[in-house]
Design goal:
Length: about 240
């Protein structure tokens, strides 16, 4: 009986030790999670600058959060959110956000007065000039979301394959309208005119009139209209 008791006690002791180890592991995980939460490492947010700065209301996910600019939100849970800006005498502005853990993005926005008509969805196209003989045409593959007809210099792109053979011109995908140019080193650059929409290159906000180049692997260009409608164009180097 003594032997059986000792074996039983030994087995129970092992179970108790295993339970104790699991308890400490769980406690350590909870403590690390608490530390990350206190440091804000599992949070994200944005810095918003609006023109005009006063007389506005800023809404996040349907809740009013501010009445003037600039506004900093740095304790938001990661994921999808909807940013809205309203002001008397201005068109409302909506911007869907997809925030990642630990990131703080900058969002500059200039509201358009209702006294100014919205720009045409088909801006004036620049005259395309052929590339010099010393330049090789630049080839890109593209995709759109939602699906849209892609036009390069006014001509539909077959199977979404693009061949830039002019020094400058235009690229359209649905409501997304870009101007392009090929600079002296032979690099392809894009820009867009102010159309009251928010524009992003991958996850970076881009401003109207500023030229930007493609990333090494692929570039995602997104246009978010004032009503929240989104058009995305992905460009990749072709063969």
């Amino acid at each position: 009986m003594v032997v059986i008791y000792k074996r039983t006690f030994s087995f129970v002791s092992l179970l108790s030790l295993a339970s104790l180890q699991m308890f400490f592991i769980s406690a350590c995980d909870n403590l690390n999670s608490l530390k990350r939460s206190l440091k804000g490492e599992d949070r994200c947010g944005f810095e918003l600058e609006v023109q005009p700065q006063n007389g506005i209301t800023i809404w996040l996910d349907g809740v009013q959060v501010a009445i003037k600019s600039p506004y900093l939100a740095n304790n938001i849970t990661p994921g999808s959110h909807l940013l809205e800006i309203k002001a008397a005498g201005y068109y409302p502005f909506n911007l869907p956000l997809n925030l990642q853990i630990g990131e703080i993005i900058k969002i500059p926005i200039a509201l358009r007065p209702t006294s100014q008509p919205l720009p045409s969805s088909h801006p004036h196209q620049t005259t395309a000039k052929p590339l010099p003989d010393s330049y090789k045409p630049i080839k890109l593959n593209c995709s759109t979301s939602p699906s849209a007809i892609v036009k390069l210099d006014g001509a539909p792109a077959k199977k979404c394959k693009l061949r830039f053979k002019h020094t400058n011109g235009s690229l359209h995908a649905g409501d997304l309208h870009l101007n392009y140019r090929i600079n002296a080193p032979g690099q392809l650059e894009f820009s867009f005119t102010n159309d009251d929409a928010a524009w992003m290159q991958n996850k970076n906000i881009i401003k109207p009139g500023e030229y930007f180049q493609l990333q090494a692997k692929s570039t995602r260009i997104t246009r978010v209209a004032a009503d929240g409608a989104t058009q995305t164009l992905v460009l990749k180097k072709g063969k």
